[in-house]
Inverse folding.
């Protein structure tokens, strides 16, 4: 019984149905945020040490994110938070009515970092809708490309976007005593990374000039080069198509790819050693850091990397092929696995707009999924995107993001969720390089210049900003070794003379088809829900990791993941006055999610060609 | 013979704002000596930096073509010479963050390239003031009318000694916003 809040029960055969006798099974009560805001207003007026602290924009993140908080500078705690997506992402509207074959190319533009995975998820949705099963080599190459995309993405956050928060420069500005201690603290993993003290690592994490910053940039190039050998170009590949890939795979291309992939073997060991050292140091130096960005390990993950012998694109077998993935899909609630069934993950998925600049929609076209599981009117297949720009108000609507939930709970998404789920669920089939133990994930990384070793990511006791980034660091060897396993499988197929990488398909001119693509972006959970009617896209709904993480309150008042994580963050920064306060702990908490707000989105206004590129509701001054 | 790169910069499908990529086919179709390379340079400043770093032989001159909103009359053309300089570190970091997360911007490209020291001594920009930001393929009449002159300027820049060029405006990275009153792209 995985649902606690939605009125869904299971019969003896395990079939899900709505509970009988519930008058309004998907009804909910909307909680007013006004009372909380009135209290805050009073506190702000009465106490000079309680302040509004706004980050607009939050820098070193992808796209447009703003964050509002009310902090008590005396007690050093956060009293209230609001996360704001400040741009409207209108791909759902752009895609409506188009030829489904355009979907992968257009939806790929939703992100300038992870365009490859958007194209892939779109292809998966098409494959399900039209019953297209790619050939084994097509599936394997897709796995490889997506692994390389992660190997491009993770160094970006670890060393360019989030990494500077732990650099000598930033730690020196915000916690000078901690920096002095770091300079005197020996590292534990010098054989992997070569640094003698934590201070030495922090020095090389400095933005622009630090060796680790520059090396991170370089490694993104290595991964991108490997990707484009087959993918052709990045971030918006034309070669990812429904039914497989549109490219020629040869032994020489595979060898060129391997030359780049193997550079990540030693880099994996180094990155894991660096972040284990940095985060262990912070947590040992001041145990209160464990509260920074903390929230329950309540996460959703789609799973990634399909097995070529199991994946058939069907909704009917989605549970089977989902569980066969190298990363197990599912839901974690407070660190415990609730389900690994992709159909149930889909059935419990809803999206709300009570605090977003959208209108509620009517209608409940799809009451069940193709397998008969009940679906809410708030499910993406039933959702309509109806923009409603308006006045920003903490009492009412304040963001262009929506509130996705699973079983009515806000869910966190991230690369680390695939690590966590896979380790805990122990459903991953046998792998040459990876083993789930139930409380850890062992990753065997071969010898390169450094000796071979087993890196073990352990399920942390507390889920916080540091553990998010630590998990992300372990996702580098995880991705590299899944890539290696798939590279070996591809070579074996090529040796057998197998070169087919795609399956032809036709778009039916009549009838209705449903599909959903589930696959993790570099930042975690990504879904594309597709409805095709009479040969054209009738509905297209994209759910990104930052849709989950940057979500505003639920209609019933639960904070979104950024909001909750920052609420739980103590202000550990050294500051003497308000003017001196920089907000590093809050920023560490937010950046630990690797925010990626779909950026540079342009949509047409109805009735003319005017383009909205920025909704001018971002300034929090005067907002109530 | 000097090696010359002509690079077009800008988003697609944004009418005047897509001047760079829209001019690429016209530029490619022109007659050029073998020493001139035409490339679409929309693939992000960091990727461009890494590409230029990897060249066995660097270019002697780079000419960028782009639209650039600076508050002029739509269709106005400015020929600029990049003379270097960098903004404060925090601004530079933000521009690198934008670069790695997919923002396409000629200003960011020039600044990021300057930081990584990839520019040859001669870097030029031919930019045109766009009209209203709209979705679509067609240019406004003002920008359409400017295209022959843009192509002529690029051709002339690629072929000639530039020391005698009239109307060259210096462009610096340390006060890029104030100097040109440019509007930074969204991202």
């Amino acid at each position: 019984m995985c649902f606690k809040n939605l009125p869904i029960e299971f019969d003896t055969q395990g079939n899900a149905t709505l509970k009988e006798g519930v008058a309004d099974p998907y009804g909910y009560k909307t909680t007013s945020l006004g009372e909380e805001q009135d209290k805050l207003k009073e506190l702000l007026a009465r106490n000079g040490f309680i302040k509004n602290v706004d980050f607009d924009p939050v820098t070193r993140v992808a796209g447009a994110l703003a964050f509002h908080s009310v902090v008590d500078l005396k007690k050093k705690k956060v009293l209230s938070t609001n996360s704001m997506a400040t741009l409207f992402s209108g791909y759902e509207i752009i895609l409506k009515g188009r030829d489904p074959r355009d979907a992968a190319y257009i939806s790929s533009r939703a992100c300038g970092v992870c365009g490859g995975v958007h194209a892939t998820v779109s292809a998966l949705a098409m494959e399900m809708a039209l019953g297209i099963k790619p050939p084994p080599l097509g599936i394997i190459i897709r796995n490889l490309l997506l692994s390389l995309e992660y190997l491009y993405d993770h160094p970006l956050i670890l060393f360019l976007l989030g990494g500077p928060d732990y650099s000598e420069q930033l730690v020196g500005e915000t916690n000078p005593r901690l920096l002095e201690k770091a300079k005197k603290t020996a590292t534990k993993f010098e054989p992997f990374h070569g640094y003698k003290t934590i201070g030495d690592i922090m020095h090389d994490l400095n933005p622009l000039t630090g060796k680790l910053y520059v090396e991170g940039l370089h490694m993104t190039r290595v991964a991108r080069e490997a990707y484009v050998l087959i993918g052709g170009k990045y971030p918006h590949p034309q070669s990812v198509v429904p039914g497989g890939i549109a490219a020629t795979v040869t032994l020489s291309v595979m060898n060129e790819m391997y030359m780049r992939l193997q550079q990540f073997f030693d880099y994996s060991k180094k990155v894991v050693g660096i972040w284990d050292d940095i985060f262990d140091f912070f947590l040992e130096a001041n145990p209160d850091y464990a509260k920074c960005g903390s929230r329950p390990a309540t996460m959703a993950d789609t799973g990634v990397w399909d097995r070529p012998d199991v994946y058939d694109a069907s909704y009917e077998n989605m549970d089977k092929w989902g569980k066969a993935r190298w990363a197990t899909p599912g839901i974690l609630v407070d660190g415990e696995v609730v389900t690994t069934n992709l159909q149930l993950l889909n059935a419990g998925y809803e999206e709300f707009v009570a605090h977003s600049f959208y209108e509620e929609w009517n209608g409940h076209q799809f009451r069940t999924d193709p397998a008969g599981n009940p679906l809410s009117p708030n499910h993406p297949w039933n959702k309509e995107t109806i923009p409603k720009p308006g006045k920003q108000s903490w009492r009412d609507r304040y963001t262009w993001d929506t509130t996705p939930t699973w079983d009515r709970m806000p869910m966190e998404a991230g690369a680390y969720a695939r690590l966590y789920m896979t380790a805990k669920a122990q459903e991953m089939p046998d792998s040459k390089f990876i083993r789930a133990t139930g409380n850890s994930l062992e990753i065997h990384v071969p010898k390169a210049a450094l000796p071979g070793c087993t890196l073990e990511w352990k399920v942390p006791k507390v889920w916080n900003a540091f553990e998010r980034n630590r998990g992300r660091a372990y996702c580098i060897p995880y991705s590299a070794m899944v890539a290696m396993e798939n590279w070996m499988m591809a070579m074996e197929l090529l040796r057998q003379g197998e070169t087919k990488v795609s399956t032809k398909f036709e778009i039916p001119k009549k009838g209705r088809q449903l599909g959903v693509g589930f696959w993790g972006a570099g930042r975690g959970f990504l879904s594309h829900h597709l409805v095709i009617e009479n040969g054209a896209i009738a509905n297209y709904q994209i759910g990104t990791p930052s849709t989950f993480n940057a979500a505003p309150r639920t209609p019933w008042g639960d904070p979104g993941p950024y909001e909750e994580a920052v609420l739980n963050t103590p202000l550990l920064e050294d500051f003497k006055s308000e003017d001196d306060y920089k907000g590093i702990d809050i920023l560490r908490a937010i950046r630990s999610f690797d925010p990626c707000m779909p950026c540079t989105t342009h949509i047409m206004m109805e009735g003319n060609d005017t383009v909205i590129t920025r909704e001018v509701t971002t300034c929090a001054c005067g907002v109530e | 013979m000097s090696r010359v790169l002509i690079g077009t910069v800008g988003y697609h499908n944004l009418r005047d704002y897509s001047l760079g990529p829209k001019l690429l086919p016209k530029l490619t179709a022109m007659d050029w000596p073998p020493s001139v390379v035409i490339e679409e340079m929309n693939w992000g400043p960091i990727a461009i930096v890494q590409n230029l770093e990897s060249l066995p032989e660097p270019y002697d001159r780079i000419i960028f073509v782009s639209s650039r909103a600076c508050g002029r009359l739509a269709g106005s053309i400015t020929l600029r010479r990049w003379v270097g300089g960098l903004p404060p570190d925090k601004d530079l970091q933000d521009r690198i963050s934008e670069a790695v997360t997919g923002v396409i911007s000629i200003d960011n490209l020039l600044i990021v390239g300057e930081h990584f020291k990839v520019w040859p001594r001669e870097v030029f920009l031919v930019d045109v003031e766009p009209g209203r930001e709209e979705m679509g393929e067609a240019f406004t009449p003002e920008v359409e009318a400017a295209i022959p002159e843009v192509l002529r300027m690029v051709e002339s820049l690629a072929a000639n000694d530039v020391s005698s060029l009239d109307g060259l405006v210096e462009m610096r990275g340390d006060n890029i916003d104030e100097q040109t009153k440019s509007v930074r792209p969204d991202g």
About this structure: The mean pLDDT of chain B is 90. Helices of chain B lie at 19-29, 45-53, 89-100, 106-115, 141-159, 176-180. Chain B is about 35% helix and 20% strand.
